[in-house]
């Protein structure tokens, strides 16, 4: 099932009723294939994105959803990686999170992901359409007071420009990987924090921004990459996701979380698994 519009993924906006459970068969197929990789110790998908866009939370959420759909996860004793208080086991053997900017480990992680790896299958690039908060309250205050990033509009503008820079770096890494014959087969853009832009207009605006064939500066970077590596060699898609529900507060302004029910969240997660299965 392919959707023309992001707003059509969520049951709340749907005109033609379909159920997310239609995805089950393809999801199961993907999961079995993925587990076969895990059993031979291959991490064949990497998760990238700026810090605080929600990579770790997303991993934990998707892991929870995959369990919830009662696919069998093997009990793994070795190689377990913790995200928060969750033991993710086989999940993190499949999908590895590389830290965002400003982390010393990032450079090593990026190089390992793209150069060392024998068969890197896919790249998940997490974005948040500018809704990145500052974890550290002191840093947050410096942004607001000193840098005059005193409104959510300004914060988003800054975040989106940082995101473009980071995404360019990642795309260059992908180009290099192609040059040495270790190219990933697909690139998935995950627009996380969809709960902060969950109305029909905003969802579709975000979709336009992140669309591989769009006209935004983000789309342009994808198009430039595809031009260089060949469109047929790298499948590319983007989709919305909500890993966690939380309002964003910034200098007395607030964007409310509004996902309108658990089934909307689940539908987005299902769509994610479905996309991966079909790459
Ligand atoms: N509103 C909202 N906030 C989110 C979502 N996912 C993550 N967050 C927030 O983003 C923060 C950073 O997430 P984290 O996974 O640590 O980011 P990472 O640095 O990319 O690994 C979390 O503490 C959450 O508050 C989401 O889907 N919606
Ligand atoms: Mg993290």
Task: Please characterize this protein's 3D structure.
- The chain has 279 residues and is an alpha/beta fold.
- Mean pLDDT is 83; it is low at 70-80.
- It contains nine helices and nine strands.
- It has a single domain (6-278), classed as Rossmann fold, CATH 3.40.50.
- Helix 1 packs across helix 9.
- Helix content is 45%, strand content 13%.
- The strands form three sheets. The protein has a five-stranded parallel sheet, sandwiched between helices. Strands 2-3 form a two-stranded antiparallel ribbon. A two-stranded antiparallel sheet has the order 8-9.
- The longest helix is centred in the middle third of the chain and has 28 residues, at 152-179.
- Guanosine-5'-diphosphate binds at residues 49, 51-57, 100, 192-193, 195-196, 242-244, 246, 257.
- Residues 55-56 line the site of magnesium ion.
In whole angstroms, the N-to-C terminal distance is 13 Å
Oligomeric composition of the shown chains:
single chain
Which small-molecule species are bound to the chains here? Answer: guanosine-5'-diphosphate, magnesium ion
- In total, the number of domains comes to 1
- How are the strands of the largest sheet arranged? 4-1-5-6-7
Shape: globular
Unreliable sequence segments: 70-80
Please state the CA-atom Rg, rounded to the nearest Å: 18 Å
* Largest sheet features: 5 strands, parallel
How many DSSP E strands? 9
Q: Structural class of the secondary elements?
A: alpha/beta
Tell me roughly what share of residues is in helical segments: 40-55%
The CATH C-level name is Alpha Beta
Strand percentage: 5-15%
Q: Mean of residue pLDDT?
A: 83
| CATH fold-level label | Rossmann fold
User: Number of helical runs?
Assistant: 9
Order of helices and strands: HEHEEHEHEHHEHHEEEH
């Amino acid at each position: 099932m392919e959707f023309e519009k992001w707003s059509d993924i969520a049951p709340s906006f749907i005109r033609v009723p379909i159920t997310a459970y239609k995805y089950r068969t393809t999801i199961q197929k993907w999961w079995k294939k993925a587990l076969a990789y895990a059993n031979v110790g291959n991490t064949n998908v990497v998760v990238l994105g700026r810090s605080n866009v929600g990579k770790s939370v997303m991993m934990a959420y998707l892991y929870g959803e995959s369990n919830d759909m009662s696919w069998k996860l093997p009990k793994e004793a070795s190689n377990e990686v913790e995200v928060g208080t969750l033991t993710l086991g086989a999940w993190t053997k499949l999908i590895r999170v590389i830290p965002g900017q400003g982390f010393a480990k990032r450079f090593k992680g990026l190089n390992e992901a793209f150069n060392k790896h024998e068969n890197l299958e896919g790249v998940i690039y997490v974005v948040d359409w500018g809704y990145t908060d500052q974890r550290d309250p002191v840093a947050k205050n410096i942004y607001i007071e000193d840098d005059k990033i005193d409104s959510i509009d300004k914060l988003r503008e800054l975040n989106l420009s940082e995101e473009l820079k980071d995404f360019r770096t990642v795309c260059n890494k992908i180009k290099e990987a192609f040059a040495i014959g270790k190219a990933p087969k697909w690139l998935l853009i995950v627009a996380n924090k969809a709960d902060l832009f969950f109305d029909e207009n905003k969802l579709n605006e975000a979709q336009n921004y992140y669309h591989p064939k769009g006209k935004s500066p983000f789309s342009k970077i994808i198009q430039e990459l595809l031009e260089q590596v060949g469109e047929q060699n790298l499948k590319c898609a983007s989709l919305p996701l909500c890993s966690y529900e939380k309002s964003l507060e910034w200098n007395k302004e607030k964007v409310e979380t509004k996902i309108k029910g658990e089934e909307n969240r689940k539908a987005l997660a299902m769509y994610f698994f479905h996309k991966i299965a079909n790459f």
